[in-house]
Amino acid sequence: MVVAAAAARRRRVWRWAMRAVASAVLWTAVVQLASIAGVWRPRVLADCWGGGGSGGAAAGLAALAGEDRTAARLSPLALVPRRVYRSNGYLIVTCNGGLNQMRAGICDMVTIARHLNLTLVVPELDKRSFWADPSDFGDIFDVNHFINSLRDELRIVKALPLKLKIKTRRRLYSMPPISWSNDTYYLKQVLPIARKHKVIHFNKTDARLANNGLPVHLQMLRCRVNFEALRFTPQIEALGRKLISTLQKSGQFVVLHLRYEMDMLAFSGCAHGCSGKETEELTRMRYAYPWWKEKEIDSEFKRLQGLCPLTPEEITLVLKALGFTKDTLIYIASGEIYGGERRLAALRAAYPKLVRKEKLLSPDELRSFQNHSTQMAALDYMVSIASDVFIPSYDGNMARVVEGHRRYTGFRKTILLDRVKLVELLDLFQGGKLSWDEFSAAVKVAHQNHMGQPTDRRAIPGRPKEEDYFYANPQECLGSKGGLRDVL
Questions:
Q1: Residue 410: left if φ>0, alpha if ψ -120 to 50, beta else—which one?
Q2: What is the dihedral of CA 324, 326, 328, 331, to 10 degrees?
Q3: Distance of CA 19 to CAs 7, 13, 22, 24, Å?
Q4: Which chain positions lie within coiled-coil regions (predicted)?
């Protein structure tokens, strides 16, 4: 009897122990799944894709307006499980260019680091560009969110370990990766260098990864970094949300990315509509910057090729031809327009409801952003994503990255101007060879398929600079239902 009772107790204890272990395993799995869902699915899939249809775009814009993010920050953020892997070394990157050129470069560097199993040091930003912006990564982006939201993919650190930091002060292997390289180049050429030196420095990040021909999981990671991990700082987001809210109170609004700043014109050599004195000033600037390789430029020839931004006067005629009426609210997203209010006179006369952030925000609100062009550009970026219509006058980095982001949030209307055709039509109209009605009809016909609709990204083997840019049309991250990526 005693032996039987003891055996029964042991069986009960064993059953209790097994139940406890099973419960612990089950709860661990639940917590892991909740962490993944909490960081990746609700903010990226629900906010940006919304399960398909126009609801995805609405949710994405609600996030831009701060509704979802404000609510999320009121409760602790669940972390995705940390990916455990053996690191092959550390990757330091120094980004070059303006905000959106650096943004795309950061996405590429995260993807490369993940592909090579490297530990990424938080990127350094360009301080040598024309605007000489002293902003660091943490002045523009939320560093902790960047690190934590990607911890299931790779390890990101704020600085090298002290031992390696001391070592790299004496000697650091630095290189610019070959432009438009595929994943095989990084595995065969770069990984052995990283393993040998333990720390490798990329001193350029622009266009270092191919547009096409990459595995889908790498393309998806580029999107995840761009649309989820690169969140602006709370200060930038709060001011950006205020701008969006102010504009939305007046109804629908158009963002015109008027790329007519002094550095753009000097770099491109585009001087159409400028005085002789202004042309000389732009030429002197171009020669003053040794890293701007092209010096002797035929401005009119480039214009006829569609390689110049439209002037404020030209964009005024194009907007009217496209059917935008005088009461249209237009927000200008740009730096200081070359020629100031004098060059904006025709545009303002045609569209009196022309505004900029400097008009909608007080000097006190913008004071901390002054002399920080990348932070000012971040505000314009937020407004551009949220606008009802986005129209870039030139296909620079901001125009292309915003185009891709607007595709991602529901193929929102983005009018991509055919500058070759427009220059031809403008010259015919201004030369008296086309009536206004003929000019307007021709402009509308030329752009009926240039509204940011779903389309395949054009690939040109052997000529990556001429093919469509990945960040303008990240088609691997988009889907068929309502133009949004399908959600499983």
A1: left
A2: 100
A3: 18, 10, 5, 9
A4: none
Q: What gap in Å lies between CA 214 and CA 10, rounded to an integer? A: 58
Q: Tell me the whole-structure pTM to 2 decimals.
A: 0.83
Q: Are 373 and 98 in contact (CB under 8 A)?
A: yes
Q: 61: exposed, middle or buried (C-beta count within 10 Å: 0-12, 13-18, 19+)?
A: buried
Going 335 to 340 to 342 to 343, the CA torsion angle's sign is negative
**CB 190, CB 108: distance < 8 Å:** no
Token pair listed for 266: 């000097």
Nearest Cα to 487, choosing from 62, 31, 56?
Answer: 56
- Which of 426, 417, 254, 245 is closest to 326 using CA atoms? 254
Predicted local confidence at residue 77, as pLDDT: 59
Residue 266 has pLDDT above 50, yes or no: yes
Closest by Cα among 193, 222, 221 to 207: 222
**Residue 67: is its pLDDT beyond 80?**
no
Least confident of 7-21, 216-230, 390-404, 456-470: 7-21
> In angstroms, what is the C-alpha Rg of the chain?
26
Q: Which of 61-65, 228-232, 246-250, 265-269 has the lowest mean pLDDT?
A: 61-65
What is the residue type of 121? V
What is the β-pairing status of strands 156-157 and 330-332? Answer: unpaired
User: Which residues does residue 232 pair with via DSSP β-bridges, in sequence order?
Assistant: 141
C-alpha to C-alpha distances, 217 to 112, 224, 376, 425, 476, nearest whole angstrom? 12, 10, 33, 43, 9
| Residues 117/88, Cβ–Cβ less than 8 Å | yes
Q: Specify the length of the chain in residues.
A: 488
147: tokens are 């690190």
Q: Spell out the residues 6+ positions from residue 198 whose beta carbon is closer than 8 angstroms to its own.
A: 89, 90, 164
What's the pLDDT at 57? Answer: 41
